[in-house]
Amino acid sequence: MTEIPEPPADPEPTILVPIDVHGEASLPSGTAALLANAHVVLLGYHEIPEQTATEQAREQLGEPAMATLEGLAETLTDAGATVETRLVFTHEAATTVDRIIYEHDCLAVLVANHVERVDNVLLAVRGLVGLERNAALVAGLFADRGTDVTVFHGRDADEPIAEARGVVTETERALVDRGVEPDAIETVIEETDEPVAAIARQAADHDVVVMGETNPSVTTVVFGMPADRVAEQFQGPVLVVQRPRPET
C-alpha cells in the first residue's frame, strides 16, 4: 500500500506586533498563546514630537523602553514563539511600521486584542490575490492545533456566484495542501455592499480574524482603517496578511 506523503511544513510565519512603548505597554491577554507558532518581530515604537531628535529620545527613554520590550518578548518566547525585538523612536509611527514590514519580510501584522482561546478562525478573502499567503499564515499558526477555519467571502452584487465559489474553493484547497484538515474548514459566501461590516458580523462567532491587506500600505489597515474597524467591532485580534512587496 502506497503511503500518502505528509504535506511539507510551512516555516513559522513572520508576524509584526507593533507596541506603543510610551507609557504602560502590555500585550493583551491570550496574545502569546495565539502567536505560539510564529516568528514575532516585536516592534516597540515611541512617537515623538517633530522638534525632538530621535537620538535624544533614545538616550533619555531607551533603557526603560527596552526593558519593557524585553519583558514582553520573554512572555512570547515562553509560549513557544521565536522573537526578535526592535525599538524605534519616530516622528511618524505609521511610516515606521510599514518600513519594518519591508525590512523583516513580515507575512502579517497583528492588531492585538484580548482572546481567551483559539478554537475557530475567520479567514476573510476577497479574491485570488494573496490566496497563498493567506493560506500560509493560517496553516502556519493553526494547522497543528485542530482549529476550525471559516473561509468567508463577501461578494458584491456584480460578482458572479461561480466566481465567488471559485475563490473559496481555491482557498480551501490551499489550506488543505498546507496541512489543515478538510473537516476543519467551512466556507461561507454572503452578498454584501459593506464588506467590513459583514466581516465583523461573521467574526462574532470566531476567536480570531485573518484578513488581507486592502491597500499597498499597512498604514491604512493598522492605523485607523479596515482592520482597525473590524477589530473595534469584533473586539478580538485581527491578523492582516500583507501583500508581497515589490523588489524595486
Q: In words, what does this structure look like?
A:
This protein has 248 residues and is of the alpha/beta class. The protein has 8 helices and 9 strands. The protein has a 9-stranded mixed beta sheet with strand order 3-2-1-4-9-8-5-6-7, sandwiched between helices. The longest helix has 26 residues, at 54-79.
Mean pLDDT: 87
The amount of beta strand, in percent, is 15-25%
Number of helices: 8
Distance between the termini: 50 Å
Name the helix and strand elements from N-terminus to C-terminus, one letter apiece: EHEHEHEEHEHEHEHHE
The largest sheet has its strands arranged as: 3-2-1-4-9-8-5-6-7
Shape, per Cα inertia axes: globular
Question: What share of residues is helical?
Answer: 25-40%
Oligomer: single chain
Query: How would you classify the helix and strand content by structural class?
Result: alpha/beta
Compute the number of strand runs: 9
Uncertain stretches of 5 or more adjacent residues? 1-5, 215-221
- Computed over alpha carbons, the radius of gyration is 19 Å
How is the main sheet built? 9 strands, mixed
Summarize, please.
The protein is α/β, with parallel strands linked by helices and 248 residues long. It has helices at residues 31-34, 54-79, 93-104, 131-142, 161-177, 195-203, 219-222, 226-234, and strands at residues 14-20, 39-47, 82-90, 108-111, 120-125, 148-155, 185-191, 208-212, 238-241. Strands 3-2-1-4-9-8-5-6-7 form a nine-stranded mixed beta sheet, sandwiched between helices.
